Amino acid sequence: MIDRLTVPDSKRDHVRGTAIARISLLEFGDYECPFCAEVEPVITEIQTRLGEDLCFAFRHFPLTTVHPHSEHAAEAAEAAGAQRSFWEMHEMLFQNQQALEDEDLVQYASLLGLDEVRLIREVESGAHAARVRDDFKSGIRAGVNGTPTFFINGQRYDGTRGLEEMLAALTAEVRQLE
Amino acid sequence: MTGEANYKDMYSKSRRGPLPAGTRAPEFTLRSTPDQWLTLSELQGRPVILAFYPADWSPVCGDQMTLYNEMLDEFREFDAELLGISVDGAWCHAAFARDRKLHFPLLADFEPKGAVARDYGVYRDKDGVCERALFVIDSEGIIRWNYVSPLGVNPGANGILTALEQLKDQKAEVTR
Known about the structure:
The structure holds two protein chains of two kinds.
Chain A: E1 14-17, E2 23-29, H1 34-50, E3 54-60, H2 70-81, H3 86-95, H4 102-111, H5 116-124, H6 129-141, E4 149-152, E5 155-157, H7 163-177
Parallel strand pairs in A: 2-3
Antiparallel strand pairs in A: 1-3, 2-4, 4-5
Helix pairs in contact in A: 1-7, 2-3, 2-5, 4-5
Chain B: H1 3-10, E1 29-33, E2 36-39, E3 48-52, H2 59-70, H3 72-77, E4 81-86, H4 90-100, E5 106-108, H5 115-119, E6 123-124, E7 129-130, E8 132-137, E9 143-149, H6 158-175
């Protein structure tokens, strides 16, 4: 059970940036969702600009009915995480959204220098399925109904997903804190 | 008439409002497939989630039903049955369910049109469709929770889960 529904939980979440940053940005996303892939470079740019002020976390919200590859993709990211390479796989998956078959996942693991046999074995056996499901459930509980959904310091962000507007929303948080 | 005014007029609220918690859920028998019927009382003994929605194929309904489809395991943990209801016909439902790979029944409130939605107070006369309305019915057939969402907004599933949890807690107390 995840207690902190809309703010990153450094004990369990995959976090990019410093966990004690002043601003947190939590995304519920799906590797097969085109809007999530579209926003990924925006997040990267935001992270570059805000630096140590931002802690970004990603939770899985795979809608497998419409995105049949999203579950295995999420589990592959987790399996890469078990080999300390979650974010590398995360980026790889978004950059190659059109090719998310199991054999593609094996190839990405190999490209990242991971133990690809272990990775695909974990995906096929569902070793990380419960973890992905926990992410999904925490999203449902937080009122997420589609992807991507963002929370800034625990508050749902409903603005557009452009760089300027997202940055403005995030920096407004900093100003409030100062 | 301007487009906007026309839209507002079309999407005016149904007058009665949804049946409140504590009311016995009106009985119904509706087609669940072109050759099968489903009667509400057949499900007595288990909680039932009724999800009224305006129309197959419209973007929000699709997302909402897709989300619920992902939630079936969670609903099953409460032994709850999920039923989608709209005024679309059984063949339309069949095509929609196949396209979206939905694994729960979609009921056709088709003839007389919207009769069940009217019984539950969630029919929109001017539009000829039902509200986007949720009901959680307990194992005795009593409505325990309802929610009517703005037509264009996906209400998510959190409210349903909270209602099911409360039912479970109450049941545990009674047993004790």
